[in-house]
Each structure stands twice: as C-alpha cells, then as structure tokens.
Amino acid sequence: MNLLLAIPRLQVITDETVQTRHSHAALAAMAARGGADAVQFREKRAWTTRQRIEVARACLAACEAEGAILLVDDFADVALAVGAGAIHLGKHDLDVETARRIVGPQVIIGGTANSYEEATAVWATDIDYIGVGPIYGTRSKANPAPDMGLDTLARICRDSPVPVVAIGSITAERIPEVIAAGAYGVAVLSAVVSAADPMEATARCREALQAALAERQAAGA
Prior knowledge:
Blueprint lengths: L9 E5 L9 H11 L3 E4 L7 H18 L2 E5 L2 H7 L3 E3 L7 H8 L4 E6 L2 H7 L6 E4 L16 H11 L4 E4 L7 H6 L4 E4 L1 H4 L4 H21 L3
Parallel strand pairs: 1-2, 1-8, 2-3, 3-4, 4-5, 5-6, 6-7, 7-8
Helix pairs in contact: 1-2, 1-9, 2-3
C-alpha cells in the first residue's frame, strides 16, 4: 500500500449497457468536466484487448484534459498499456500481488468487498482502497451480492486501515448518509450515466460529497 497516492473520493463508472446514448469516452469527458476525481472504465462485454486499449486511451485523454484519473476496471494489462493511474480488481480478477507486479508501485489499486469478512481479507493485502457494496443494491450486475446497508458499511469504515469507497445505487441524495457512516468516498454509476445530463449529475454528486465531508469534519469525525 502506497499512502502517498491520492485516492480519488468521487469515482464515476462508465457503462454503455445501462444506457445507449453515450460512449465510454463521452461519459468520461462529461464526468471529468463535472468534477469526478476518477473515471472508472468498466466494460464487461467480451471485447478484445485491442478494443479495450483503444477505448481506454480515449477515456484517458478525456480525463487528462480535466485533471482526473483514469481507473481501469479488472484489466491490469490494459491499465499498464495506456498509462492509467489506477485499477480496480473484482473478487474474481487477478490477485493484488500479481496486479502490483504488472502495474508497479505508482498505480492505485482498489479491491472489492461485499461483506465485512471479505473486507478484512482485502485490507490484509497490498491494496490502496476498498470498494465496498452494494450499499443500496445495484442495477448494473446480473447476479449482485445482497444489499450491505449502512450499518455494515459503518463497521467496515471504522475498522479498515485503508480508505473505503462506497458503491451500489449511490445518488447525490444518498451521499450525505454514506459519508456520515464513515466512507472516504463514493463510486457512482447509474445516477450519472443514466441522467439526462451526466456532467450536471456529476456536479451534483461533487457538491453533495464536498458538503458531507465538510459537515463530518466540522463534527470532528
């Protein structure tokens, strides 16, 4: 774990399957302009490595234009090929140690946990943050894990030695209670990519996150 890395607090996950109006690259551009710290390129379809690299490069250009980080979901080789700043590993992806050898120490690596027990196993590895959820459920996966809820999120946040990023039907309206539970940040998908204006939706999430973090700081949490 590299504590000098700047873990992104607001991630927007791109998806071309929950909506059909915008490409990954277009969503990356709108999210970055709206204030996302990182754009997570997530593509679950059976694409070739060449396809993934081409689209990831377009997403990276959109991110770099606005000072955001490109986070590649699942594929460490794609992240290395395009020079992405971060990768996120699912439970059935590469192990963290192998991914670290591929991308090196300078790249942020996130892991996935769907329960407290899984979180304890993930934070024992060379991970930089844990993506925890689904907090409120999810519409983006065919066979999702059970809803976690705020109580389990709070327990994980209390005990985790690494930042916790909450995911799973996170909206601007729900961000305050997620941050109040102790989350370091949030990852948002449908609330942005399915919105009429993804850039404006990202900006609302950014505003809600900043306000919630400021309130938590003022309360001394």
